[in-house]
Design a protein that fits this description.
Layout: E1 11-16, H1 18-23, E2 35-44, E3 47-53, E4 59-68, E5 82-85, H2 88-105, E6 118-122, E7 127-130, E8 133-136, E9 141-145, H3 150-153, E10 155-156, E11 159-160, H4 165-168, E12 179-180
Length: 181
């Protein structure tokens, strides 16, 4: 996995030593749970300043915090030490993005299939059925459907709706105002 570019405002997980928590009067009831933090300043891809919250929600600032990147191993916490890292979700998203970019580079990306749907304008008075109840439109409506459904839309039993036969063929001059791709 490549380096995730840190930017101001991004959320990271801050891990502090017990000595740092005691020295700064921070609540850290479970050392296995990192603290929530947000990047306040970026020195470089591996060094940031943070605003963080202890386990009681008390806000504090930490400067020059090492940001673990790639698959770096977390350092052993001694004395008043600390480090931060990306959340697992962020690492997963970065890996997905990297894989997609790699796929695009190798031209193995899936081909995009064009949308075959057509748009039809049903004019005022067009007979329709909603839940089996026959109605006439009281205003013009645009609908989107698959081309295979166009003949079904303009069928009344076995007979086409009056004046609708032109709507099925895009070559008809009168159809152009009703049928668009």
């Amino acid at each position: 996995m490549s380096v995730i570019k840190p930017t101001v405002g991004r959320v990271v997980l801050l891990t502090i030593s017990a000595g740092y928590a005691i020295k700064n009067h921070l609540a850290c009831s479970d050392p296995s749970q990192p603290l929530a933090a947000q990047i306040a300043y970026v020195h470089n891809d591996r060094l940031v300043n943070l605003t963080a919250w202890d386990h009681n929600g008390k806000q504090f600032g930490v400067t020059s915090v090492r940001l673990l990147q790639d698959d770096e191993v977390a350092p052993e916490l001694t004395g008043s030490s600390f480090y931060c890292e990306w959340m697992p979700y962020q690492k997963g998203q970065a890996a997905k993005t990297e894989a997609a970019e790699e796929l695009l580079k190798t031209n193995q990306a899936a081909t995009v299939t064009p949308d075959p749907s057509v748009r039809l304008v049903l004019p005022y008075g067009t007979p329709i059925k909603i839940n089996g109840i026959p109605l006439a439109l009281d205003h013009e409506v645009m609908v989107t459907t698959h081309p295979a459904n166009v003949p079904l839309i303009f069928q009344k039993g076995d007979e086409p709706v009056v004046g609708s036969s032109d709507l099925v063929g895009a070559s008809s001059a009168s159809a152009e105002s009703y049928y668009t791709k």
